[in-house]
Amino acid sequence: MNNISRSSKNSIKLITRCGVLIALSAIGAMIKIQGTIAFDSMPGYFAAIYISPIAGAIVAGLGHFLTAITSGFPMSLPMHLMLMVVMGIVAYIFGFIGNKINGVIACVVATILNGPVCTVIAAITAKALGLPFSGAAMFTALVVPLTIASAINIVLAFIVYMIIRNKRI
C-alpha cells in the first residue's frame, strides 16, 4: 500500500509541475517576437532537462500550439500540428543530451535544430502544403528571428535549471 501511495504522490507532483510549466508556456505564447515566434518554449526546455525529456516534449509541443492558437494559425492547422510535433522532438533531444552528455552541448544542438533545421523543415512543409509563404522566402524571413528566439528560450531554461537543479522543489 505504501508503494501505491508514493507512486500516486509522484504522479500528482509530475502532473502539477507539467501543468504549471504549460501555464507558463501560455504566458510566454503571448510574448511574440514575430508571427508565431514567441517565448513559449522556455518552460518546455526546462521541463526536458529538469523533469524528463518526455515531459519537456509535451510541454514544448503544447507551448507551440498555444502560440499558434493565440496567433490564429497563420500557417494553417496542419502546419502548426507538424510544428508542434517538431518542437516536442527538439525539446526531447535537448533533455536527452543535457542529461546524458552536457548542458552546453544540449543548448547548442537544440538552438541549431530549432533554428535553421526547423526553419528548413517548415519551409519545405509549407511549400508541400501549397501555402503562399513558403520555400526560400519563408526560410530567409524566419531563420534569424527563430534562431535568436530559440537561443534565448533554450539558454534561459538552462540557466534556470542550473540555479535550481540541486534545490528541492
Helix and strand topology:
Blueprint: H1 2-29, E1 32-34, E2 37-38, H2 42-50, H3 53-71, H4 77-100, H5 103-128, H6 135-164
Antiparallel strand pairs: 1-2
Helix pairs in contact: 1-2, 1-3, 2-3, 2-4, 2-6, 3-4, 4-5, 5-6
Structural account:
With 169 residues, this protein is mainly α. The chain has helices at residues 2-29, 42-50, 53-71, 77-100, 103-128, 135-164, and strands at 32-34, 37-38. Strand 1 and strand 2 (37-38) form a beta hairpin. Helix 1 (2-29) packs parallel to helix 3. It starts with a helix and ends in a 5-residue tail after the last helix. The model has no long low-confidence stretch (mean pLDDT 93).
| Sheet with most strands: strand arrangement | 1-2
The tally of beta strands, per DSSP, is 2
Number of helices: 6
Backbone shape: globular
Structural class category? mainly alpha
Strand content is: under 5%
Helix content: over 70%
Structural Rg: 16 Å
String of helices and strands: HEEHHHHH
Main sheet properties: 2 strands, antiparallel
- Contiguous uncertain segments of 5+ residues: none
> Kindly, what is the distance between the CA atoms of the first and last residues, rounded to a whole number of angstroms?
25 Å
Average pLDDT, all residues: 93
Attribute tags:
169 residues; mainly alpha
In short:
The protein is mainly alpha-helical and 169 residues long. It is 80% helix and 3% strand.
